[in-house]
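User: Sequence for SpoIVB peptidase below. Tokens please.
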Amino acid sequence: MGWSRRLKLSVSFATLLFFLPFHAEAYAKSQDRVIPMGHSIGIQMDLSGVFVTNDVLILGNQWLKAGDSIDQIQGTDVISLKDFQKIMSKTKKNQIPMNINRNGTAIEMLVDGDAMKRLLPFLKDRTEGTGTLTYVDPQRGTYGALGHQIVDSSLKSPPSFRNGAIYLSEIEQIKKSSPGTPGYKISSIIDDEDYLGTIQRNGVYGIFGTWNDAYKKVLAEPLEIMQPADLQTGAAEIFTTVKGTEVETFSIRITQIDEEQFHFVLTDQKLLETTGGILQGMSGSPVIQDGKFVGAVTHMFVDEPKKGAGLFLMTMRDGEKR
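Assistant: Structure tokens for SpoIVB peptidase:
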């Protein structure tokens, strides 16, 4: 899938030390500060191979299953869809030997040649979508986004990937949320040659990677990270993008604080009129209280889209280090 097309990702709601004594205090403070973002991002991940997206009958009663990876065809390694197409263009056999991997088990099978020629629409070597950039750590040159793991919708699992990148995207349209029906953002990559950062980890608490230093134009001032114990119920803000590339500030109210997450309700009428509530693609939006960086939006309540949950930034950053 090319980045020239519009992107829509339906995310499940149910990313130089100085050892000088006289710098110790200043260094400790700098480590507790990161830059809140809120920008809409396009996400591209090149998968570690070619994967099957649907159950497909290939010969007799033999099936390829969604999530299988095709490792070899006729003894030739298959790394990408281009490899698959190149091999098939030269194959004239009626039955083709193929090696696949299914849930970690290597399987050899014979595949009908005509069935193989019809297989291409059910294969993928890339996953992509949209989300929200949470923070940039200028000390480490890293970033974090989403606040939850990417699960490929067709593979129904976190994708195994070779490399990936995030790009600044522009919101073109909003499909509003309503009770029982999550809304979403429709966006497009501004420049697919100009990446914000590379993806190095797709973890439980988000996607993380190396920030592109050339992209200083989207950076703001760092904020101190709030300790979870310091969060209070009451007024707070989120940074997010609902139009173009502009990051805006919207009011929320913290309603509940748990050990690993917090709950909130959207109170900003401008945001509610635009979105109807929390949107798919809003995951990762920074949450700020009293000028300190609390965490990131991660979930919405489908039946009450004004209500959501967030992850503490301290927890999210622990996920970056693992």
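The radius of gyration is 22 Å.
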